[in-house]
Amino acid sequence: MLDLALTQSQEMLRAAAREMVEREYSKEVLLQLESDDGELERSLWDKTASAGWPGILIPAKYGGEGGSLTDAAVILEELGRGPAPGIFFSTAVLGVLSLLEASSEEQQASILPRIATGEAGIALAATEARYVWKEELTRTKAVRRGDGFALNGVKLFVQDAGNANILICTATLEGGEAGLFLVDVPLSGVSIRPLPGFLSDSFEVRLDGVEVPESALMPGGWDALDSAVLKALPVLSAYQVGACERVFEMTLEYANSRIQFGLPIGRFQRVQDHVIQIVNLKDAARWTTYEALWKLDENKPDAAAAVHVCAAVAREAYYQACNAAHEVHAGLGIMREYGLTLHTRMSRTLYHYLGDPAHHKARLAAELGL
Amino acid sequence: MNFELTFTTEQEAFRVEVRSWLDENAPKEMEHPADPGQLSAEGYRKQRQLGRDLGEKGWLYPTYPSEYGGGGLSAEEALIIEQELDRHGFTLPPYYDSGGKLGAASIMVWGTEEQKRHFLPSIFRGEVRTWQLLTEPEAGSDLANVQTTARRDGDEYVINGQKIYVGSTHGAEMSWILVNTDPGGARHQNLSWFMVPMDLPGVSWAPMDLLFAGNERGAASGHKQTVYFENVRLPAFNLIGGENNGWRVAGTHLELEHGLMQTSLRGDSLWERVVRLYTEAQERCEPIMDCPDASTLLADMYIDSQIGRLLHMRNYWLQRTGRPVTYHGPQAYLHVKRSALRTAKALHKLFGPYALTTDADVGLEDGHVEVQQRGSIVAQHPGGTVEIQKVIMARRLGIGRAEPQKSGRLK
What we know:
A: 10 strands; B: four-stranded mixed β-sheet; globular
């Protein structure tokens, strides 16, 4: 039976997540986070963890909730309204899914319980200078040394590396294929540098002769990582959906309260066009995203196409919604203290993260056999 | 959540019944018309017969109460009938019948019991086909600016004026019409809504020469007309919803027309045709056109069709579950209109001049691609232009207003 509503327990989760985001991630706190050295974010993460949400996708035997991707998306949609920083996604979604897809029982048993309690934060260090999502472009090398490996290379645009204590690093093994390594940080030879400017929580990670034990290598390779990313993508899209909802609310409120020429500016059809554009973008993103989540949760054979559709749509939606919101807000929109720029900045950062719309359209075309 | 339209065992058994009946009775030579505007008298006769046959079974207007001649069936059963007709390239009804699709909804809401019993059964059984007469030379986007008048004279009204961009080639038995009954009255409070038998003295029509006449995925039955009313005397009984209440009566069917009736929960046959054309050309290593961004164009086209499908699915679900439906109809309609032009551009880029010809040797897919090139332009304005859809959305969202505008009455 067609049913596009969330379940009752998902609605409760949503209400609790909204309450938490409004309480903990106020505009003032988020503005502070933009220049934070990590301590504030860490304390916020602890509060999120105490609600049990980092374990949302972790199986019960490892102390998690064993929830569905849609459950995780409900939380992410609310975080997107902040926009709360990405360590939750990097750890509880992308990190957990990567571990579930690619790591061994022992690795899972050692790390997943620590994620569930909020002790461990994960960042995926896969991309490099040639910023393309392709195994063969991995230049970081892993060479055998003693009982383990030595890692050398530079990972670029690594989201949330500054707040992680475990990195999942891709590095080319001697056979030429990419291996996935668990790297505890801080560690000798690992240097992590935030990238300044119009990016949120993006880092360079240098690996200079980093020594890791044999047990750091996950049994799964690039394909396992790719399937983890496929599952994580619509959950990230849900974050963009929630963000678009918030941008819409801000813009509607402003259009109805700002008086120019003696009228609320929302009376002008050119202004209305911008608001309507945001609504159209957010609804397209919402329904493509939730259908993809449902297809993944239900193991539908055509889920991958739906994922690439929502990934292309939601990235573009958040980016363009922010542009339209700036048109309506004009000067006020660019005042940092107003808060719209928090979204604008995040919309730019997430536009290319885990593949930009062009990448997802190419993947979609491949899925459709074109 | 569940994004699947699932059906019960009983409903699936009903599908089998519908399918085998259609396999037996649907006129084969009428299936999947490229340009439904090009409809011969013989073809029209067959469509009408199919309509009467469906009507007799209660499958023509399946969800309306059987006491008025409808099928008394569930929304799911109606969807099954639509899906099965879609396999043959027919819509429900299998011909243009705005009277049934839109007018009947207004009669159900605003008509008296006597009027429902008088007007609805013949429509629902397919015996009567009905045109909608709204647009006038001076009432396009400003639809309330109606100049056609109806003057009360005893037990009758006398109608004078004209309607344009309406109807189809082969006539109709009935129409419904929005007219001005109080030329000095306040805007929106000066209109009335009537059912008009088309054989009354003084009613005449003349065909219009338009770029394309097909609409609503094959529902057209030929060309659009200009309809003239010259001292047409109409019984007062045919006034629905009371004098000067016509704008509210129209609010019911306009609500439906603005994106709530094109459920579009069926397959996308144009997409399948285009993919076939493209992949066949690829396999022959002979791209029809040297189009470097072909796969992106096709991906964009696919994404557009998925968004359209999902917006209509959402609207269907909102209606089915009694949730508020406000800006959602015009939003879906806007998407359909806008994406049609994007698709036309993509097909033009993919296939170049091949997309523009109906020639039997070099044209594509028996003219289906060429029809889309013309039809996408014509699709921009029926049921309100793109800009009008945005106006309605803005009102329903409450942009620049103290209170969002209420939707038209559907019950």
